[in-house]
Write a structure and sequence with these properties.
- This protein is α/β, with parallel strands linked by helices and 333 residues long.
- The protein folds into 3 domains: 1-74 and 146-218 and 308-333, P-loop containing nucleotide triphosphate hydrolases (Rossmann fold); 86-139, no CATH class; 221-249 and 271-304, 2-Layer Sandwich (Alpha-Beta Plaits).
- Helices cover 30% and strands 25% of the residues.
- The chain contains 10 helices and 13 strands.
- It has helices at 40-47, 90-100, 105-114, 130-142, 160-175, 187-193, 211-217, 229-238, 284-293, 308-315, and strands spanning 2-11, 14-24, 29-33, 55-60, 75-78, 148-152, 179-183, 196-201, 204-210, 221-226, 242-246, 276-280, 298-304.
- The strands form 3 sheets. Strands 5-6-7-3-8-9 form a 6-stranded mixed β-sheet, sandwiched between helices. It has a 4-stranded antiparallel β-sheet with strand order 11-12-10-13, covered by helices on one side.
- The longest helix is centred in the middle third of the chain and has 16 residues, at 160-175.
- The two termini are 51 Å apart.
- 34% of the residues are buried.
Amino acid sequence: MIEVRGLTMRYGRTLAVDDLTFTVRPGLVTGFLGPNGAGKSTTMRAVLGLETPAAGAALVDGRPYASLRRPMHTLGALLDAGAVHGGRTARAHLGCLARSNGLGPRRVAAVLGQVGLEDVADRRIGGFSLGMKQRLGIAAALLGDPKALMFDEPLNGLDPEGIRWIRDLLRSLAAQGRAVLLSSHLMNELALTANHVVVVGRGRLIADTTTDALAARFQRDVLVRATDSERLTEILRGHGATVTAEPAEPPAHDPPEPAEPPAHDPPGTGGLPVQGLSVRGLEAGVIGDLALRAGIALRELTPRGASLEEAFLELTEDSVEYGARPVTAEAAR
């Protein structure tokens, strides 16, 4: 595991990380989220022993990273894809790292193949694109076949195929029982990759929960499709709900119209699309109970939570260091 315990980091009068505590557990991809300046990169540097805490500790497998004899076997990390010697080849760069941790050329060749750089292994890194440097940094993180991995913005510079590749890679590493910590500002990708999220703002912990629980915490509404939308709307409004009509559900296909409604279709539908209702103010279970008592059949009852991006923005709205004014239509002209 990667453990951050009461971590506090100061730079002069600036408090960069403030009594931060969280754990990155094996078998999960943990998304590390926060606005710019929230302390994410500082925390990751502290985990690697590159920064000295004013208080608290950052541990890997229960020990400080600097105390590990062959650290790349325990934690692989990518913090800055550009922090490489441009005059070296990819193979030479990985070879130096491998020798420092008791690894041989075969392992270097294996990770070059794993990240798709075998054909450019003997080219100088200075001529690599940002995406190629990201792949090289990921190869370095994988060198020791570590128990835990930590990546700071690894998706920058990758094309869509590369983004999908690293998403599958991180999920497979977690499925093998490894602990994975991933920092990124690409919320849509994090929503597809991470099972757990740690959200920080101004150096302090804001949330430490699963991605599903975070979305449910900011539930927007419940989508309801009923055989008698008008009557159900009256009932729900009578119980204090706000109900808004949504487009009817389109039919899956266009079969020939029967002379009479099929026996299995509830009264009032005739096989036609069912009107959708957006319901706020009542939980899905309450809506279902009210419909049951009224004898109204439901075709759909779906709680709709906020996206990870929406939840993140709401959680961190008071923690943004450099907030811009909203763009209006006139200002955009």
